[in-house]
Design brief:
Elements lengths: L32 H14 L1 H13 L9 H21 L1 H13 L8 H15 L28
Helix pairs in contact: 1-3, 1-4, 2-3, 4-5
Length: 155
């Protein structure tokens, strides 16, 4: 037995240090993981150039690029926020149905293929963004486009 008694710290720590002036200000997205997962492929499609610039900066900084890569990171955040705004304006019902399904099914995409199909069609028709899964083998039909799906539920 230990003679030391446990001490719990329940305080919230907030860093009030302002960012340098040369880093552009951007509002945080404010979305939970389900909407971000639902929109992730479309964010990747529209924001690929910004993501690549950010990852290149991080690679060249050898893991020490927190402040050096902040400008690129802010561009990624702005781009992702614009995709979410556009999806909310153009396909709100389909978007909510899909991320709601993800939220209810432990973020597992295969549970929500019906809602995903409707969302993909809406986003393609109205925003001209297409879902592509990186690393899909050449000549193989991506899982979300297969004719015969295995549905976990009738949602």
């Amino acid at each position: 037995m230990s003679s030391r008694h446990p001490v719990f710290n329940q305080q919230v720590l907030i860093d009030t240090t302002p960012l340098p002036e040369n880093i552009p200000k951007v509002r945080e997205i404010g979305a939970s993981s389900a909407p971000l997962l639902s929109a992730s492929y479309f964010i990747g499609a529209r924001c690929k150039a910004y993501n690549d610039d950010y990852m290149l900066c991080k690679t060249q900084a050898h893991g020490k690029g927190e402040l050096e890569c902040m400008k690129e990171g802010r561009k990624v955040t702005r781009c992702a926020a614009s995709v979410l705004d556009d999806m909310n304006k153009a396909c709100l019902e389909e978007f909510r149905r899909h991320w709601g399904c993800l939220e209810q099914n432990n973020q597992q995409l295969w549970h929500c293929r019906r809602a995903e199909t409707l969302l993909n069609a809406c986003v393609f028709d109205k925003l001209k963004l297409e879902k592509t899964i990186p690393g899909t083998p050449e000549g193989e039909t991506p899982v979300h486009l297969r004719k015969r799906q295995i549905y976990s539920q009738n949602r």
